[in-house]
Amino acid sequence: MNTLNKTLALIALASSSAAFAATDFDTLDVDGNGAISQSEASVDAELMSQFAELDTDGNGELSKAEFSKA
């Protein structure tokens, strides 16, 4: 059920016109786990284009510190 809720939240965020201009860490961190996954970042094309470079520890997520370098 938790995965379903996350999926629905991502769909709602992606369908929002504001999502494409989202640059706020907390807005992009849909599941509230303190990191931005590639799935969460996918709503922001500019962030996705920098994701691999920003993910300095290579864990597939952006911490708040990594995101702040965007």
Automatic annotation (TrEMBL):
Name of a matching Pfam family: EF-hand_5
GO molecular function: calcium ion binding
Listed InterPro entries: EF-hand-dom_pair, EF_Hand_1_Ca_BS, EF_hand_dom
Domain (EF-hand): residue spans on this chain: 42-70
Gene3D superfamilies reported in the protein's UniProt record: EF-hand (1.10.238.10)
Signal recorded as keyword: yes
Signal peptide range in chain numbering: 1-21
SUPFAM superfamilies, per the entry: EF-hand
Coiled coil segments of this chain: none
Keyword annotations of the record: Signal
Record's protein name: Calmodulin
Higher taxonomy: Bacteria, Pseudomonadati, Pseudomonadota, Gammaproteobacteria, Alteromonadales
